[in-house]
Every structure is written in structure tokens, then in C-alpha cells.
Amino acid sequence: MVVRMMAPVAVMFVLVCLMGLIGLGTRARIQRSHAAVQASQRIGTELSELRSLSRSLQRDALNLLIEPDRAELAVIHGKFAGRHAQMRAMLGRIAVDPLFVAEPRADRYLRAQRTVLGSLFAVARTVQQGNRRVALQSFRTAVRPNER
Length: 148
Fold this sequence. Notes:
Layout: H1 2-66, H2 70-95, H3 98-101, H4 106-128, H5 132-147
Helix pairs in contact: 1-2, 1-4, 1-5, 2-4, 4-5
């Protein structure tokens, strides 16, 4: 008689334990998915920041090309140098991020951004040497195609 009364309780206990295990497994999968989404959002934010920095560097390079005032040129060169270092550091960080590196187009993106960064530096150096025509041509042929 006691066995008959305890059987439903035992079945309920087994069902509760089973539901608990299922819940734990589901929770672990949800946590992994949440972590993956957060990592993906972080990469997206970093790529947006890189794009913004690249645009700022391009604007600085163009300002260097058209600015006649020597004092203002020094200010623009200072901004350019700071942004250039910042972009180089960001590219270095993202290049070793396992989530980003796993992307099939990561290498192509990094190569293009490094080319743009080097080309922008060359434009700034050429302007500083006083050859604006060559710098503008370099901007058109080396920077623009890699930024598209």
C-alpha cells in the first residue's frame, strides 16, 4: 500500500529532476548564444569605429591638400598623426580577434584597410614635402579604390 502511494511521488520526483536537467541545458545554450551575440555586436561596433576613423583620416588628408595656411597645416598634421596611430592600433586589435578572423572576408578587409592607411600616410608625407599634385594623384589612385 505504501508503495502504491509512493509511486506517483517518485514519478513526480523523476519528472522534476528531468525538467531541471533540461532547464540547465537550455540555460547553458542561451548563455552561449547571448555571448556570441555580444561578441558579434562588439565586432560590429569596432568595424564602425574603424570606418569612422578611416573617413576622418581621408578628410584630414584632403584638408592637408587644400589648406594654404602653414599654422593650420601643423594642426591638421597633428590630428592626422593621432588618428593614424589610433587606426593602426585598432586594426592590430581586430586582426587578432578570433571571432573576426573566422570571417571569410577578414583577410581581404584587413589588407584593404592597411593599404588605405599606408596610402593616406604617403599622401600626408607627400603634402608635407610640398608636392600637392602628386599627393592628390596618390589619393585618387591608392585610397579611393580601396575604400569602396
